[in-house]
Amino acid sequence: MGLIIRSSAIHAAGCYTTTAIRKGARVAEYTGHKLTKAEADTAYETSPITYLFGLGDGEVVIDGHCMAMFINHSCDANCETSEEDGRVWIKAIRKIEPGEEITYDYCLYDGGDDEAICNCGAKKCRGTMYSKEEVRRRKAEARKAAKKAMKANAGKRAKRAKE
Q1: Domain containing 7 — which CATH number?
Q2: Largest Cα–Cα distance in the chain?
Q3: Which residues are registered as beta bridge partners of 62?
Q4: What is the pLDDT of residues 3-50, one digit of tens each?
């Protein structure tokens, strides 16, 4: 299997295959130094781009320095990731044709206020690289905050009406 890095419509550079890849095949391993989440947060505090991959519960990350760090996110991915014995593999979830860009769903779960905007262009793009669960959590949190703000504003209006 041959992988190359070249320009991508999704995000600057992407990883492409030069040969067909069968469904279920390991495409690449995500490798690099392992850091605690706290170490990574400190190291990349001012960096707008990182290549971190969370392991297990996310308290340890791989600081990507490998071919796999160029694999872009897509909401309609042709690969998925799996963690096996502390190693992360990118595996094909369907047959991938030569020349196709390799992608997987990042399923982000941590990013503070960052919107993590998705540029994959898929028909059913969710508009963000956050996982479906994280999108639901963030929407629920926003609804809760809006409800709280509405109550606070209603209280202020009632107070002014009494004056």
Answers
A1: 2.170.270.10
A2: 76
A3: 34, 53
A4: 999 999 999 999 999 999 999 999 999 999 999 999 999 999 998 888
| 122 neighbors 74 (Cβ within 8 angstroms) | yes
- Is 12 in contact with 73 (CB distance < 8 Å)? no
Q: Which helix (H) or strand (E) holds 140?
A: helix 132-162
63 in any annotated domain: yes
When pLDDT is averaged across residues 98-102 and rounded to a whole number, the result is 98
Q: Which residues contact residue 107 at a Cβ distance below 8 angstroms, ignoring those fewer than 6 apart?
A: 129, 130, 131, 134
| Number of structural domains in the chain | 1
Asked if 133 contacts 46 with a C-beta cutoff of 8 angstroms, the reply is no
Nearest-angstrom CA–CA distance, 36 and 75: 28
Is 0.90 topped by the overall pTM? no
Structure tokens at 96: 């991938």
Q: Is residue 122 part of a domain?
A: no
132 within domain boundaries: no
**CA 67: distance to chain centroid?**
17
Domain that holds residue 48: 3-106
In a domain, residue 148? The reply is: no
What does the pLDDT read at residue 145? 85
